[in-house]
Amino acid sequence: MASERKITANRSNAKRSTGPKTDAGKARSSRNARRHGLSRLNPENDVSSSVLLGAMTAGLAQQQSSFDVDDLVRANLWLGRIRQARHDMLVALMECPSPKLAKRLAGLERYERPVRASQRRVLRRWLKQG
Questions:
Q1: What count of other Cβ atoms lies within 10 Å of the Cβ of residue 40?
Q2: Which of 28, 51, 63, 75 could form a disulfide with 119 if both were Cys (CB 3.0 to 4.6 A apart)?
Q3: pTM score, two decimals?
Q4: What is the spatial distance between Cα 108 and Cα 85, in angstroms, rounded to a whole number?
Q5: DSSP structural state of residue 46
């Protein structure tokens, strides 16, 4: 059980960290996930996903389930988008170095790690089946 002093301190800290209060601040924070375009990946409407799906399916000669192929295609699309975003950010960083842009570049790891894990899971399933 937390002491009264700790409860009071937690409540005081929580009052300072409840997010933006003004309309301008709320509008700005709502755009945080859209800065690099990675939050907008929609493989169903992406032309490159159907091309990639066709190429991978033909290359795999229908040996794997369509769900696994779809998962692998989705992971590869994500990785391609992340690589493109990283490239664009590196170019911008070289043209105009800024700590803010460097921090955003480092933040791409947040997106890449789970996608690589998903890709590894699919490939491990295939190895177990084969």
A1: 9
A2: 75
A3: 0.57
A4: 8
A5: -
